[in-house]
Specification:
The protein is mainly beta. The chain has one helix spanning 116-125; strands at 3-10, 16-17, 25-33, 41-48, 56-63, 71-72, 83-89, 97-105. The protein has a four-stranded antiparallel sheet with strand order 1-8-3-6, with no helix packed on it. Strands 2-7-4-5 form a four-stranded antiparallel sheet, with no helix packed on it. Strand 4 and strand 5 (56-63) form a beta hairpin. The longest helix is centred in the last third of the chain and has 10 residues, at 116-125. The radius of gyration is 15 Å and the shape is globular. The two termini are 13 Å apart. 22% of the residues are buried.
C-alpha cells in the first residue's frame, strides 16, 4: 500500500485534471522557480470526471512557501466513481515555474470500507505521515 503518483502539473490559471482514481488520501509535493517575493496560492480540489463544466468540491488552498499536508479526499456520498483531482494556480502563478506532483495512497482491494483512523495508523506504520 504505497504512495502512487497520480499526475504531475505545472500550475497555470486554468483548471487541470488528473485521471480518475480510487483512494482516500492524497499528498502534494511541489517545487517553484524562481522563488517568488511573496506567497503564491493555488487550489487543489476533487472534481467529477464527466460533464462540462465539471463539478468542483472540497477545495483547499496550496501555498508556495508551505509544505502541503496530506488531504483526506473521500467521494461525496460515495456516488462518484469517476473522481479526479483538479488543480489551479491563482493570480500571478504563470510568472513562475510552480510544479506539483499529486500522489494518492493506494489501498488494497476490498479495503474501501476501512475506517479512517485505521488508515491513518497504517500510514504512520509505513512512515508515510
Amino acid at each position: 500500500m504505497p504512495w502512487r503518483l497520480l499526475r504531475g502539473f505545472s500550475l497555470t490559471n486554468q483548471w487541470q485534471y488528473s485521471q480518475p482514481f480510487e483512494g482516500k488520501f492524497i499528498k502534494v509535493e511541489q517545487s517553484i522557480f524562481p522563488a517568488p517575493p511573496s506567497t503564491l496560492r493555488g487550489v487543489v480540489a476533487q472534481a467529477k470526471n464527466s460533464g462540462i463544466p465539471r463539478e468542483i468540491f472540497n477545495s483547499e488552498f496550496l501555498y508556495s512557501d508551505k509544505v502541503a499536508p496530506i488531504y483526506k479526499v473521500e467521494a461525496p456520498d460515495n456516488i462518484w466513481i469517476d473522481r479526479v483531482i483538479a488543480v489551479k494556480g491563482l493570480y500571478y502563478v504563470t510568472e513562475y515555474n510552480w510544479n506539483i506532483n499529486i500522489f494518492y495512497w493506494e489501498t488494497s482491494n476490498g479495503s474501501g470500507n476501512v475506517p479512517t483512523q485505521q488508515t491513518i495508523e497504517t500510514l504512520l506504520v509505513y512512515g508515510a505521515l
